[in-house]
Specification:
This protein is α+β, with helices and mostly antiparallel strands and 210 residues long. The chain has two domains: 5-141, Zincin-like, CATH 3.30.2010; 153-203, Roll (SH3 type barrels). The chain has six helices and eight strands. Strands 7-6-5-4-8 form a five-stranded antiparallel β-sheet, with no helix packed on it. α3 (63-83) crosses α4.
Length: 210
């Protein structure tokens, strides 16, 4: 069987590469290093009309984020093998496989202490994307190359005016549980936006919109 360890070690911690290489061989998965995608870090496609399992992971992730995303997608593969389409994509079955697949990497001490701690917290209730977990996202961001300080919802003052990447303009209001209440200025509609959503600050601490 081919050994993909050398190629994989360019994108993930070296100690993890042989394990992932074995997973690829054992499942017959078509594993692809993908270009950067803003809407997702990786994806899984189930077998269809004779095609194999397919997993892709963005090439520009730091090694720990790349590995976590790879484990996330292999958990989808295992869930499909056991249940096909009979369960929710990120339901209890997927969460169980995710925790099981993550375990050997935690035992090997592959992750730095801050990332390991964030993973352990995240694993209490894994979500559809590691980016939705604020603590894990912050821990992983520290290991990005050429990291620059990004402007996020949580980093700007309340009542500030900001724009999203798509050009829509909002005013930040109060925090409701885990997300910030924001009002879109062109429509007066209210939205709840994740605290680590990247934004463009237009006007700091403006007066409350009437």
């Amino acid at each position: 069987m081919p050994d993909f360890s050398q190629q994989l070690s360019q994108y993930m911690p070296e100690a993890a590469a042989p394990i992932i290489s074995a997973w690829i061989n054992d499942t017959g998965c078509q594993f692809r290093i993908a270009r950067r995608r803003r809407t997702k870090l990786g994806d899984y496609t189930a077998p269809f009309r004779g095609a194999p399992h397919k997993i892709s992971v963005n090439h520009d992730l730091n090694p720990y984020a790349f590995l976590i995303t790879t484990i996330h997608e292999f958990a989808h593969l295992q869930t499909w093998q056991q249940y096909k389409h009979r369960v929710k994509p990120h339901g209890m079955e997927w969460k169980g496989h995710y925790k099981q697949l993550m375990a050997p990497f935690l035992r090997l001490g592959i992750f730095p202490p801050d990332v390991r701690y964030a993973i352990l917290q995240y694993m209490e209730n894994p979500a559809a994307s590691s980016c939705t977990d604020v603590h894990l996202y912050r821990a992983l961001r520290k290991y990005d190359e050429n990291v620059t300080e990004q402007c996020t919802i949580e980093s700007i003052p309340t009542n500030s005016i900001f724009a999203l990447e798509n050009g829509r303009v909002f005013q930040k209001l109060e925090k409701l549980r885990k997300r910030y209440k924001c009002i879109e200025l062109s429509t007066d509609r209210t939205y709840l936006i994740h605290p680590i959503a990247e934004v463009i600050l237009i006007k700091e601490a403006a007066g409350i919109k009437k």
